[in-house]
Write a structure and sequence with these properties.
The protein is mainly β. The protein contains 2 helices and 14 strands, in the order ββββββββαββββββα.
Length: about 220
């Protein structure tokens, strides 16, 4: 099992940009992924600033499925040259059609992420924490062969071991034990870095398939 490798790393030849205005423009097409949906949704960019992107989703979004503060992912570009844009919902401007302003994070190339064997995602998950009877919801933002990075509203201690179930799609659920190795307070949630500590053979194969699917689709 690999070590946790989802902290920000620089690279001499690695592409990254913080301002979306340097990459996209109004009228461009973009694909939008929220953890309430199994698929990316076709969208249109309405406005761009130094730190935000306003989009209109061209497909039906179920009422109440997306909230301010939620983590999302945008894919921009053409096959073989996809840019990955992590973001959070800053405001919801319209529900029909769905329009939202997104506060963006560091933009990277899919090719670079594939080389580093890590991917930016938006997967729903449930986490069983020591001392709590019931599992609580979390959103997985990054996944790799070494661990995951997730947002959660509950306070978990560093070095605690948790049970995590990630819904990869309608059918497949990835289950594992992981240790909290990173912790970062956000506005309304806490961002955690979880390093894998225990996998069944079945779930190890499912993780491998999940990660290599990115390479076949976007590499």
């Amino acid at each position: 099992m690999e070590k946790y490798n989802l902290d920000d790393k620089g690279g001499l030849f690695k592409f990254s940009v913080k301002s979306p205005s340097k990459l996209v423009k109004p009228g461009d097409d973009v694909e939008f992924k929220h953890f309430s949906s199994n698929n990316f949704l076709k969208s249109k960019i309405l406005n761009v600033t130094e730190s935000t992107i306003k989009i209109q989703v061209m497909e039906k979004v179920p009422d109440g499925s997306i909230s301010v503060g939620d983590h999302v992912v945008l894919h921009y570009g053409q096959p073989g040259n996809i840019f990955v844009i992590p973001a959070n919902i800053s405001s919801i401007n319209s529900t029909n059609p769905f329009e939202a302003t997104l506060m963006t994070g560091k933009i990277e190339k899919m090719k670079d992420m594939i080389k580093e064997r890590r991917h930016c995602v938006s997967f729903p998950s449930m986490v069983k924490i020591i001392g709590l009877k019931d599992a609580i919801p979390a959103v997985v933002k990054y996944i790799s062969f070494g661990g995951i990075k997730m947002n959660c509203g509950e306070d978990i201690l560093l070095e605690d071991v948790v049970d995590v179930t990630i819904s990869l799609d309608k059918i497949n659920k990835l289950n594992f034990k992981g240790r909290v190795v990173r912790k970062n307070k956000l506005d309304s949630e806490i961002e955690y870095g979880i390093e894998y500590t225990g996998f069944t053979e079945t779930n190890n194969k499912l993780l491998t398939r999940c990660l290599y699917d990115f390479e076949t689709m976007y590499g």
